[in-house]
Specification:
single chain, alpha/beta, Rossmann fold, 6-stranded mixed beta sheet, about 10% strand, elongated
Length: about 575
């Protein structure tokens, strides 16, 4: 209803056209009765011919009105279906991308894609087609039934009693169809999740020669979806057969009574012809409604899944009264005070434990330590992808909980270890850091990141399409695109997560020089396993098991003989 409400005017027009088309259909039997009783009974041939012409012109007028109103109804309702589906799909997508990373720890991407595509397509089918047919046939069926009651009240009272009995089993079957429809959509989503996962890892699948295994896994999932769909279809077919058979039997009883009335001379032949057409309209309407009922039940399962997604609320949100971040000069100040944190998906393991770190504006601090020490978690908390259980995380003296998410994240630039390249050209990939930037500013950022040379050498230069996930680039080239993007954003706080991990020695030296230039007048936090890249940091913080175990410069830590010295010995001595 919230998605239909903005289009009340169009819905009203659709209803008007719907009613007019139904009225035109219901007028047809009455015109047919007049044709039989008046156009065929005149004794004079000339009068009979004129009467027939007049009645046929009237029938043609009814048919033309039916065609015009049906076309108008079809256009309005189809437009509504397309519009509502587009709005629904956009709303679901916009809602999903605002969810915190915690949401994606438990929800597969393929599941979300299935709801965005398959489920919304079902809703589109119902709103744009099935619902239109259902409303049209409901109006025609009720109108035909009303006319039958008016013309044959005694007989139709008996028929209505039988039809009420038909409805009760239909409700039972309907509940089963709805449950099976939901289960069927879930199985389809499972297949989509497998496909999305494997297609994003095709090189790994092929390098391990697991194509046959993955194809079988997808096939098994598809067969499960098929089996569930067959169960749904079987129950739905039984529902349709029961409704149509029972309704047809009830109406045949009424028609039989009508023929007996003609034989007894109680009604005219035209009256019987009119009754026959109304019965046909009613039976066909019930048959269509049985089909539409099944579509509605199936779409109800899909809608439940979409509404569940829209009802999901992110645990990370901007406060109602957000505190403003102060203006910065020379970089942002960073503070983590007594922070303890556990990932929701791994509550038994502390990622950070009583962690305290102060970073002054303009300072470059390197975080080093073995894998799983909690280095990346520090970045996640600064960006407020998660909230801490204990302690406080602050940027420029303001708790990240108290400021607006957009204002906080606009102040931070990040170069992740796995560079993300979008399906666009090189220019737009770099411009992602600051969408309003000019072409000259984008190119300047690329030059600063030593990306200009290889971009210019591409077939179409900066306009070259880089492929899905940047498959046309090497790992080092993707990394330099990512660095250029962060430099274009020009934030006061820069987070570098293994920013040179994918570069060869020569490229690393060039990019390291560019990064050192970019670090000026801003605060920089660097995560690095390759210790050669952090030797010139103002301070090196050594982490282990979510705690700080050492702090100092490269020379101080190397001489101390602790964890850093052991890590350095492993790298430099080898």
């Amino acid at each position: 209803m919230p998605f239909l409400r903005p289009y009340r005017g169009r819905i009203g027009l659709a209803v008007v056209f719907l009613v007019m088309a139904a009225v035109a259909t219901l007028v047809f039997p009455a015109a047919l009765k007049s044709l039989i009783d008046q156009g065929l009974v005149a004794s004079d041939p000339g009068e009979r011919l004129l009467a027939l012409r007049g009645h046929f012109f009237a029938l043609f007028g009814v048919g033309a009105a039916l065609g015009v109103f049906s076309a108008a109804r079809f256009y309005m309702v189809t437009w509504l279906g397309e519009r509502v589906t587009a709005d629904l799909r956009s709303a679901v997508y916009a809602h999903v991308i605002e969810q915190s990373p915690e949401f994606f720890e438990t929800t597969q991407t393929g599941e979300v894609l299935s709801r965005l595509t398959t489920d919304t397509t079902l809703v589109q089918t119902v709103v744009g087609s099935s619902l239109s047919m259902g409303l049209r046939n409901t109006v025609m069926g009720l109108g035909a039934m009303l006319m039958l009651i008016i013309t044959n009240p005694l007989v139709m009272t008996q028929v209505l009693g039988i039809l009420i009995i038909v409805v009760l089993p239909s409700l039972y079957f309907g509940r089963r169809v709805r449950k099976l429809s939901r289960a069927s959509q879930d199985r389809v989503a499972d297949s989509s999740a497998i496909a999305a996962e494997v297609l994003n890892a095709v090189p790994v699948v092929q390098s391990y020669t697991q194509e046959a295994r993955e194809a079988k896994r997808f096939s098994d999932s598809t067969e499960n979806a098929f089996a569930t769909a067959v169960r749904r279809t079987r129950v739905r077919s039984g529902l349709v057969a029961f409704i149509i058979t029972a309704t047809f039997g009830a109406l045949l009883w009424g028609l039989y009574q009508g023929t007996q009335a003609v034989i007894a001379g109680q009604v005219s032949a035209g009256h019987l012809g009119q009754t026959v057409v109304y019965v046909i309209i009613l039976v066909s309407s019930v048959a269509v409604l049985a089909e539409v009922y099944g579509d509605l039940l199936r779409a109800a399962g899909a809608t439940e899944r979409l509404m569940e997604l829209l009802a999901t609320s992110s645990s990370i949100a901007s406060p109602a009264q957000a505190a403003a971040l102060p203006a910065t000069r020379g970089g942002s100040a960073v503070a983590l005070e007594g922070v303890s944190f556990r990932y929701p998906s791994r509550p038994q393991h502390a990622a950070l434990a009583d962690f305290t770190l102060q970073v002054r504006p303009g300072e470059t601090v390197a975080l080093v330590g073995p894998s799983g020490a909690g280095k990346s978690t520090v970045f996640q908390l600064l960006l407020r992808f998660y909230d801490v259980a204990e302690g406080r995380v602050a940027v420029d003296g303001v708790s990240v909980r108290d400021t607006a998410l957009q204002a906080l994240r606009q102040r931070i630039g990040i170069v992740p270890q796995d560079s993300v390249i979008f399906s666009a050209n090189a220019l737009e990939n770099i411009r992602y850091g600051r969408p309003e930037a000019s072409d000259d500013e984008v190119i300047a950022a690329a030059r600063a990141a030593f990306a200009d040379d290889f971009i210019s050498a591409l077939p179409e230069g900066y306009q070259t399409f880089l492929g899905e996930r940047g498959v046309r680039l090497s790992g080092g080239q993707r990394q330099r695109i990512s660095i250029a993007r962060a430099m274009l954003k020009n934030p006061p706080l820069l987070l570098l997560d293994e920013a040179t991990s994918a570069l060869d020695a020569e490229s690393e030296r060039m990019v390291q020089a560019a990064l050192e230039s970019a670090m000026k007048d801003r605060t920089t936090l660097v995560i690095a396993h390759r210790l050669a890249t952090v030797q010139r940091a103002d301070r090196i913080v050594v982490m282990e098991h979510g705690r700080i175990v050492e702090t100092g410069t490269h020379a101080e830590l190397a001489a101390a003989g602790g964890l850093y010295a052991r890590l350095a010995a492993l790298q430099f001595d080898l």
